[in-house]
Amino acid sequence: MGLGISLSQAVFPLTNSVFIAEYGWRSTWVLWSVAETIVFIPLTLLFVNNVPLHSETNTSDSPGSRLPVLTRRDSTFTEATRSYRFWLLMYCVLQPSLINTGIVYHIHSIVEGNGLPRLFAPAFLSSKALFGLPASFLSGFLAERCSPHYLLAMSYVLQAALLALLSVPNSRLAVLAAGACLGSAAMLGNIVLGVLLPLLFGLKAQGSIQGIVMTGAGVASAAGPAVFAYLFDAYHTYRPVLLFSIPLAFSCIGCSLWLTHYRALHYAPAKQF
Fold first, then answer.
1. Which of 242, 132, 246 is nearest to 189 (CA)?
2. pLDDT digits 0-9 by tens, 34-77
3. From the CA atom positions of the chain, what is the Rg in Å?
4. What's the pTM value of the predicted model, to 2 decimals?
5. Which of 210, 190, 187, 186 is nearest to 198 (CA)?
């Protein structure tokens, strides 16, 4: 899944820029909408299926069952939301959603404010995707061998580097390196979050927990561009908002390192026939 996300993010920004320049924005977006309707929606309906989880309350003794059986009690949704770990993790999700979406939305203006051609805006997005590709493989490998909270903290180190690099004027290399940091941080954070949530709260209420977390991320992503625009109007440059965001990244590092106590998950193999 990470491979497909990274490849599409690498290809589409530059492809979209070329199509808009050649055929206009209206024809380009009509083309993408038709392609999504004809190609992607049927593929989703054909290949995406739900797989039921067999837990302590829904064990499976049916012939042919090969799914794991959860043998420990997980947190309920109410128990999870009353835990300080939930709110620490929620903050760690909201912060990059707000900052990173603001950066991506305003990247053309940020690049121009740094004295560079607008062409470096799609180059930034392509650099993000190209470095997100190996980061997705490496993140999955490390998530099985390292403590997830350390990997989550590393994603915010990369975000702090991203913010510092985008504050450097007249540097093409800094913009491309910032894109690499954003892609690596985003992939690392997404993969580690998928590992960390079950470790902290178990699997029973994962649907509700992830729904709340993703809703918060969506709200923060919607607010990010507005926050950047407001601060740009106040300071007439993006550099202050980028520099002010660096302490927020370091605060997320601290919150990540605090997430050290996991709920033990033990699985017993289902009966095989």
1. 132
2. 888 888 788 878 877 665 554 444 444 444 444 344 445 577 88
3. 21
4. 0.72
5. 210
The dihedral built from the CA positions of residue 81, 85, 91 and 92, taken in this order, carries a sign that is negative
In the chain the first and final C-alpha atoms are separated, in Å, by 32
Q: List the one residue out of 144, 95, 149, 145 whose CA is nearest residue 259.
A: 149
In the block, tokens 């993703």 appear at: 214
- β-partners of residue 267 are 70
**pLDDT score of 270 more than 80:** no
Given a contact cutoff of 8 angstroms between Cβ atoms, the answer to whether 177 and 128 are in contact is: no
**For residues 87 and 213, what is the distance between their CA atoms, to the nearest angstrom?**
10
Q: 99 pLDDT band (50/70/90 cuts)?
A: very high
How far apart are alpha carbons 265 and 70 in whole angstroms? 8
**Across the strands, what pairs with 268?**
69
Among the listed residues 189, 188, 181, 190, the one whose alpha carbon sits nearest the alpha carbon of residue 128: 181
Residue positions counted in the chain: 273
- Tell me if residue 67 falls in helix, strand or coil: coil
